[in-house]
Specification:
The chain has 358 residues and is of the alpha/beta class. Helix content is 31%, strand content 28%. The protein contains 9 helices and 18 strands. The protein has helices spanning 17-22, 37-46, 56-61, 77-86, 101-114, 128-138, 178-194, 308-324, 332-351; strands spanning 2-7, 27-33, 51-53, 67-70, 90-94, 118-121, 145-158, 161-162, 197-203, 210-213, 218-221, 227-234, 239-247, 254-260, 263-269, 281-285, 288-289, 355-356. It has a 9-stranded mixed beta sheet with strand order 17-16-15-14-7-13-12-9-18. Strands 3-2-1-4-5-6 form a 6-stranded parallel beta sheet, with helices on both faces. Strands 8-10-11 form a 3-stranded mixed beta sheet, with no helix packed on it.
Length: 358
């Protein structure tokens, strides 16, 4: 059994990682850490975790932690990751891996040198729906892929208003925007289905210099984009067109259309109010609805249960990777390449010139 310590357990992890791990026999959550002891104690009591720390270093050093989960704000990821690697612990980091592409490469190299398992939470890679669509495309169900189109809501980021708990994301230094978080996850899921983008042209409209902090009557300066628009080329030669629009509330859906030489495949949400990389999909090839075979579902969760399902699938792959002595996927190398994609989108938008993804 793999013993897990979660750094940053009181926020996102409490509605995703901790519920996901509760259903997996391969893991035991032995420790949690937050920024203060009182909140750590509350999380530990709520999820029956034996150890609680107000300091990440104490959790990382503890002998009953084999795998460190990093679920703090993005600017703090690198410090916690480096400490875990120096302690010889396996590491799973939330996306984004860090806030700087060069640092992402450094972390990937450090993880390889440490010879520990390393993974990043781009859970769309483990969506049963995305994996099934990838197999349909690779198997020639729509012939040769010619184009991929995606339109998706970036709510609750990118709108004219922002929730108070996310207000820090209006500062580019926070690493949390409609580009880095929402488009980051959506593009990873799209690439899981159709292959990697190799070049992009982009626009990143910033429609609001100031945004409202919802429910407060106050506004704050906004330095991040409100929309993501890109056109690109995939490694197989097909084109890709992506639009991610901001919204101040819950997401209002998504649409994916894959056009091939012998037909088209469309994807829409099976239920409203969720994200492409969380939920299950309605999949049609032409007019025919196609259901995802149960063999694609690897965990005792369903995407209707929320974000825990695909995160649980990622954890299960991580456990197998550790047992088999192989690299988990997606790992830090994949995350570093994804950071380079985001950076290429930013450069393309700044210069008006298409950019290759290294």
């Amino acid at each position: 059994m793999i013993k897990i310590g979660i750094v940053g357990a009181s926020g996102w992890a409490s509605v995703s990682h901790l519920p996901a791990l509760a259903g997996l026999a391969e893991f035991q959550v032995t420790a949690v850490a937050t920024t203060n002891q009182a909140s750590a104690d509350r999380v530990a009591a709520a999820f029956d975790v034996p150890l609680a720390f107000g300091d990440a270093g104490a959790l990382i050093a503890h002998r009953d932690v084999d795998l460190v989960v990093v679920s703090v704000r993005a600017p703090r990821h690198a410090k916690v990751i480096r400490a875990a690697l120096e302690a010889g612990k396996h590491v799973l980091s939330e996306w984004p891996l860090t806030v700087d592409p060069a640092e992402a490469d450094e972390l990937a190299s450090a993880a390889s040198a440490a010879r520990v398992a390393n993974a990043v939470v781009l859970q769309g890679y483990h969506s049963p729906d995305a994996r099934f669509v990838a197999d349909l495309v690779a198997g020639g169900r729509i012939g040769r892929l010619e184009s991929a189109i995606m339109v998706a809501s970036g709510g609750s980021l990118g709108g004219a208003a922002i929730a108070p708990e996310l207000a820090w994301g209006a500062d580019p230094a926070g690493g949390t925007s409609v580009l880095t978080i929402m488009a980051g996850h959506f593009l990873a899921t799209l690439e899981r289905m159709v292959g990697s983008l190799v070049e992009v042209a982009a626009r990143l409209p910033r429609l609001y210099d100031r945004v409202e902090v919802a429910g407060t009557g106050q506004t704050i300066a906004n330095g991040v984009p409100n929309q993501v628009l890109l056109h690109g080329t995939l490694d197989g030669g097909a084109t890709a067109s992506v639009a991610v629009h901001g919204a101040g509330g819950a997401p209002d859906g998504f649409f994916v259309k894959l056009v091939g030489s012998e037909g088209a495949l469309t994807v829409t949400p099976a239920r409203p109010g969720s994200y492409l990389h969380w939920t299950d999909w309605d999949i049609h090839v032409g007019a025919e609805r196609v259901d995802v075979p149960e063999t694609y579902r690897t965990v005792p969760f369903h995407p209707a249960d929320g974000p825990a399902a695909n995160i649980a699938a990622l954890y299960r792959d991580l456990a197998r990777a550790i047992g088999e002595g192989r690299d988990p996927h997606p790992g830090f190398r994949t995350a570093a390449r994804h950071h380079r994609l985001i950076a290429a989108i930013e450069r393309a938008a700044q210069t008006g010139v298409k950019k290759e993804i290294a």
